[in-house]
Amino acid sequence: MPANLTLKFYLTSRDIPVRPGGEIWHTPLPTSRRPQGASDDDSIENTVTYGRYLSAVGRFLERDNYRVVITALAHGSQSAVSLEQVHSLSAFLVKHGEFYHPVRVVIKTEAGEHAFVVNGAVSSAGRNHIECEFKLLAGLYEAFDTPVVPRVFLLDEISADNGDVVPMFSAEWIDGFCEFHLTADYPEGKSNLIVWKEDESTYCLTHEQAADVYRKVAFALTITYNFYTFEQISAWHHAAGDFIVKPIDSARVDLRLITVRQYTPLLNIPTPDPADLIEGLILFLINLSIRNRLDRLDGTGDLAWADDYALKGTLEGFFRGLSVMAARMDLPADFKNQFKNVLICYPQDALQTLFSAVVDKTPASSPEHGFLHDRITAHAALFHSILASA
């Protein structure tokens, strides 16, 4: 290890250093991204301070002579890399989630800076799921030519200062991409979709960019849907910041999914017939059209419902993705048009029944249940109208 290799900790920027022994160092980690969130009874989160967590991150980085650092630095490099190229490390605790507390690690070298992320799980939800998510991300990264999820590197378990074991994994940091949410406070001429920059400043997307966000979300989820097994990326939510975005120009964005909690079948039919497969795809689209409009204001506020343009973008993204998925699944070349005709000819009252049935799957105790039921009739009618006019 080079003698001058140092590691410094920060919160969101270098303006907020976290020093051993300081006030922040001894402060407990937040238990939720929501203002008054509560952790599970068996969580260790209440016993983990910023200092204990960041110290564990430091041990994760140092393990096996900084193997995780070299692995991340080698990602995308066209030549061999070594620890001697590393001058210093900076670790920024950028977010607090229900599952993980992501830390952006910046490697400083003579050639410049390179970043990757370390996700550590201290909540019971995160600890129970982190190994599964690591495997899901690894599998989905390898399975698709179109970038959907970040590349993952290493998974390990690290002991905190108090003896608690904190599982962690490292992954590609997707530079320039940021979290987005619906907002009630936006300037005239802009959309109500706001982007949170890394320095905690915000800006609103154009109407065209906002529509492209929903289009790209639908595309990403559709190309990863398995027509024959009904498997899909599920348990995602805009309020959790699962998708991140980067504007390309005034009308287009690039988008990634940074977490995959579940990849499970939508329906449990061991030997589906062709009618079952079509029904599964219809239900997938209906659920996608609903979930893609659902958010919380500014990520943590009241439930929010995206405007009608989001549904139009969702349908456009779905049918673009369907062409890609159909080719992967060796479906007929005109499968997309055949399926669109099935939807257009579907009786509107029967379609409404399907939409209501999907919403009914939401637990009655959830605030989303009533929120969605209040909107689902108009949503289903608009869905049918957009398809009929396409």
Key features of this structure:
390 residues; alpha+beta; 2 domains; six-stranded mixed sheet; five-stranded antiparallel sheet; 8 helices; 38% helix; 21% strand; globular
Can you tell me about this structure?
With 390 residues, this protein is an alpha+beta fold. The protein folds into two domains: 6-172, no CATH class; 178-389. 38% of the residues lie in helices and 21% in strands. The protein is built from eight helices and 15 strands. It has helices spanning 50-74, 124-143, 207-223, 274-291, 308-328, 335-345, 348-360, 367-389; strands spanning 6-10, 86-93, 103-109, 112-120, 152-159, 165-172, 178-182, 193-196, 202-204, 231-234, 243-247, 253-257, 262-265, 294-296, 303-305. The strands form four sheets. A six-stranded mixed beta sheet has the order 1-2-3-4-6-5, with helices on both faces. The longest helix is centred in the N-terminal third of the chain and has 25 residues, at 50-74.
Please trace the helix and strand order, writing H or E for each element: EHEEEHEEEEEHEEEEHEEHHHH
Instruction: Give the radius of gyration.
Output: 22 Å
**Low-pLDDT segments, ≥5 res:** 35-42
Note the total helix count: 8
How many domains is the backbone divided into?
Answer: 2
Class by SSE composition: alpha+beta
C-alpha termini separation: 62 Å
**Can you list the strand order of the major beta sheet?**
1-2-3-4-6-5
Helical content band:
25-40%
Mean pLDDT: 91
Please outline the major beta sheet: 6 strands, mixed
How many strands in all? 15
Q: Strand fraction band?
A: 15-25%
Overall geometric form: globular
